[in-house]
Design brief:
CATH class of chain A: Alpha Beta
Structural class of chain B: mainly alpha
Distance between the termini of chain B: 41 Å
Oligomer: heterodimer
Radius of gyration of chain B: 24 Å
Strand content of chain A: 25-35%
Number of helices of chain A: 4
Order of helices and strands of chain A: HEEHEEEEHEH
Shape of chain B: globular
CATH architecture of chain B: Orthogonal Bundle
Strand order of the largest sheet of chain B: 1-2-3
Structural class of chain A: alpha/beta
Helix content of chain A: 10-25%
Number of domains of chain B: 1
Order of helices and strands of chain B: HEEEHHHHHEEHHHHHHHHEEEHHHH
Chain lengths: 179, 414
């Protein structure tokens, strides 16, 4: 589906949800309200003609030092791909500094679990409804979020003891029927 | 027979009822074992904590990040050209593919079209890297399940491909061969002949590998029907590349969204049927043949010409122009001191790397440093599914599975 048709279809399917769109460097980006993010993605995934069955990536951005930017501090790009229809779409949602939260997509795509953990770890974004929002790339004693623009690149943090992982294991065992 | 389910061992007529009730005592009987983070079978530093009932994995959780070195943060304080050597260290088994992936994204922002020769050479070196990556993945995977001999067959061939890359750019693993707008240098005169010779060696090695394992009962029992993942699950986990194709999904970016004129080459997309370890190994082995065929076709149509775009925004002018006229000197100064400045905006670009879709999201503010770089490593999605895949299997299956999804920690942890 080419981009104008895709956009038309989006507008018809989600009236009032598409806040704006850009078509640059060959990819279509659609801005949506962050509160409606999970709902929009769910609709895009389940619609027969759009069939966005794969979550490609989730990109977190700290816009605080972006020249000329006066809007919300944080942004999330949700990159979707449809294998049967072979088209792509990028969704963008922003959140203010005092409430950097987005609805979780973990119920829609299996890989959203780790991608959202990464966004939390690196950028400090919260995903409401995420089953296990803990750090993933940095260690568990780490303080702060390194990809935020106010985190100095030279600040290193030591780990004193590794993580037992038993908190995750207990949850996992419960789902397997162990009490 | 593989199954060790106690229910099948019951005497005839006995009831299996009540056997699957899990009590508090069962929970206390579990033994918790760390696989990794540092172990010969973990292909880098990865950790899985498994709950064992005998030798069966009842539950597993994974931890990553042991090789996290802040690639994305580092990019923000470097110029676009300086990021290229960092990309070598993502998937260090097929470094040129990462170079190409990153440069392609920046070139897309700048709107640069590569000279034909650069495009074909990128394609050839990428396919050579794909061959290396697949040989390493299949070879080490076989070592993990005890088939050491195969490892030498695959690594011999890999070594010969590395000899070519070494002649090409001076480095074996961390090649930094591409530049934004083209390549760092042209190939050496005997390149085409040497590649053809090496492809013969590669084909022989793959043939020997296949003959060694394809009828080997131990290999078949260890891999067939082990750690199966369904098509739907794999898509939901965002799997791409050979691991997704092993599940029976005919999806290859080189066919679906071709770049660098892949559509002009004749090759088949190798697809598995079951999504088990066997399929993942064989999809890789068969893809080596397809890559070899692409390289041969590309060598036949390798055009003459420059390997670097002459676009003034990215290309350092030749020395005679730098020293010979003022405009050349200014261009040189601009590129070296001010760097490459793509227009402000966001781009996501992707290539079919050896492990799957390697993507780079770049946010530019119009300055010489990227404002934000996000790499989409294919392994990250593969490893997210790992815990779920190994549950219910045995410890040895977990080891075999790790090799089959080809986790490269450099790319996983960035």
């Amino acid at each position: 589906m080419d981009h104008p048709t895709l956009l038309e279809k989006l507008n018809a399917l989600l009236p009032g949800k598409v806040l704006g769109s850009t078509d640059r460097f060959g990819s279509l980006e659609v801005a949506v309200d962050r509160k409606a993010l999970a709902e929009v993605v769910g609709t895009l995934r389940n619609d027969q003609d759009l069939a966005f069955d794969m979550l490609i990536d989730l990109v977190s951005i700290d816009l605080s030092l972006y020249p000329g930017w006066t809007g919300d501090r944080f942004a999330v790009n949700v990159l979707l791909k449809s294998l049967p229809k072979n088209h792509r779409l990028q969704l963008k949602a922003t959140a203010p500094e005092d409430d950097p939260s987005f609805p979780s997509l973990a119920g829609l795509y299996a890989n959203a679990d780790w991608l959202e953990r990464e966004a939390w770890d690196q950028m400090g974004l919260k995903f409401t409804g995420h089953p296990n929002l803990k750090r993933i790339l940095n260690h568990h004693e780490f303080v702060g979020h390194p990809l935020r623009k106010d985190y100095p690149i030279t600040r290193r943090q030591w780990l004193s003891a590794n993580e037992s992982l038993m908190d995750e294991m207990d949850v996992r065992l419960k789902t397997k029927g162990y009490r | 027979m593989r199954t060790l389910d106690p229910k099948t061992l019951l005497p005839e007529g006995a009831s299996a009822e009540g056997l699957d009730v899990v009590s508090r005592e069962d929970r206390d009987d579990l033994v918790f074992v760390n696989l990794g983070p540092s172990h010969p079978a973990t292909h880098g530093t990865l950790r899985a904590l498994v709950a064992l009932d005998g030798e069966t994995i009842k539950a597993a959780v994974t931890e990553i990040g042991y090789l996290h070195r802040g690639f994305e943060k580092d990019c923000e304080v470097h110029t676009y050209q300086q990021c290229i050597p960092y990309t070598d260290r993502l998937n260090y088994v097929s470094a040129i593919m990462n170079n190409v992936g990153f440069c392609k994204a920046v070139e897309r922002m700048l709107g640069i079209t590569l000279p034909d020769r650069a495009m074909v050479l990128r394609l050839i070196t990428c396919e050579l890297n794909r061959i290396i990556d697949h040989l390493v993945a299949a070879g080490t995977n076989l070592v993990d399940i005890g088939a050491l001999t195969n490892f030498w067959y695959s690594f011999n061939a890999r070594e010969k491909v590395y000899d070519i890359l070494e002649k090409l750019c001076g480095a074996r693993l961390t090649s930094s061969y591409t530049r934004i707008g083209g390549l760092s240098r042209d190939v050496y005169p005997a390149f085409a002949d040497e590649v053809r010779t090496v492809l013969k060696d590669v084909r022989r090695a793959v043939g020997e590998l296949e003959r060694l394992v394809s009828k080997n009962r131990i290999f078949l029992e260890r891999t067939q029907g082990v750690c199966v993942i369904s098509k739907e699950k794999a898509i939901s986990y965002g799997w791409t590349g050979p691991t997704l194709r092993a599940c029976g999904v005919e999806y290859d970016l080189r066919k679906a969204e071709p770049y660098y004129h892949y559509e002009d080459f004749k090759f088949e997309v190798v697809v598995g049927t079951k999504g088990d370890i066997y399929d993942r190994i064989f999809v890789r082995l068969l893809e080596i043949e397809e890559s070899s065929s692409i390289i041969e076709q590309a060598l036949r149509k390798l055009p003459e010409g420059p390997v670097m775009s002459d676009d003034k925004r990215v290309a350092v002018p030749p020395k005679e122009r730098t020293y010979g006229n003022i405009e050349g000197l200014m261009n040189h100064f601009k590129i070296i001191m001010h760097g490459i400045c793509p227009p402000a905006g966001e781009v996501y670009d992707f290539t079919e790397a050896a492990n799957g879709e390697l993507g780079f999201s770049i946010v530019s503010d119009g300055s010489k440093n990227p404002y934000r770089v996000k790499c989409r490593p294919p392994c990250f999605m593969n490893f997210a599914a790992y815990a779920e895949m190994v549950e219910g299997g045995m410890v040895a299956d977990a080891v075999a599975n790790l090799g089959s999804i080809n986790i490269i920690a450099g790319e996983l942890d960035r």
